Amino acid sequence: YDLFQLLRSSRSSKLPCLDHHLPGQILSPGHAVVLHGEANSGKSVLLRNVLAAQLLPVRCGGHGLPAVLIDAENQCDVWLLAKVLQERARAAASDPLATSEAVTEALGRLLIFRPSEPLELLRQLQRLRQILRQNPTAGLLVIDSLSAWHSMTAAFPRSTGATLKECWRAVWRLMREACVAAVISHRDGQLEFSLELDAIHLGVGCCPKVVEEAEEGAPRGSQRECFYLAPWGKELDTTDPQTAQTFFVISPAGEVLSIPSLGPLGLGDQLVAT
Asked: 25-62 in b/e burial notation, b at 16+ Cβ within 10 A?
């Protein structure tokens, strides 16, 4: 791809906890972002918020551009994405009608694929090459997740494993040819596939730390679970003031909210992002 395409497809995720780990603090076709973590660690929530930033109209603080979601887990609830879109649009829109119109407009920019097995995913990735060629403004591909068929791959490593490995390669080719940024969630297992991709690997997890509820009208003393996003497989030094930028909480509407100042985190000396 040329420089113009690269600049056009490189944008902030509007999530400080994620942008902090990205070169130039932008999502770029030059690197896929792979989010590693266990179930219920916040990976899908992060993906919904990345999608919301891409889809929302510019007047509502988004980029107003199309995106593609590959829901390999078959667990994507569009209603949850709509809640995040609504919350963000409400902060910028002047009335409920404008909020509703913004959400409808944003959802109209989303193309969803739901492959049932790795071979179907590979076919859909090949089909996407033509779709993205005809829609050059679509600059984001989100996959949740490329470890959806872990048990199948363990049972049939030669057939299914080889197909899934080719899917990783197809994602990389798609990024290069169509100049799209990719954000992919991934559970433990089959790491050799994801590590072949030129990617930024980040660990997502839940911290043994709760943050006092700061929202207006919240019960006094109420607390919220805290999550972290850090370089995958590396120790996270919680004594470093910069570490606060990697932590986030999730609002009742599903929004990812940064924690501007945690002070002493009280998590012990170090955490390992796994």
From this structure: eebbbbbbbbbbbeeebbbbbbbbbbbbbbbbbeebbb
Q: Which residue has the tokens 């949850």?
A: 80
The label of the residue with tokens 């909020």 reads 99
Strands 256-258 and 32-36 come out as unpaired
Residue carrying structure tokens 């990205």: 22
Indicate if the pLDDT at residue 221 is higher than 80.
no
The Cα 119–Cα 18 span in angstroms is 31
Tokens for 98?
Answer: 């404008």
Bridge partners, residue 205, by sequence: 228
Which residues on neighbouring strands pair with residue 38, listed in sequence order?
none
The answer to whether residues 248 and 259 touch, using CB atoms and an 8 Å cutoff, is yes
Joined tokens for residue 42: 């916040």
**Band of the pLDDT at 261, cuts 50, 70, 90?**
very low
Q: Which two tokens stand for residue 171?
A: 């994602």
**What pTM does this model have?**
0.84
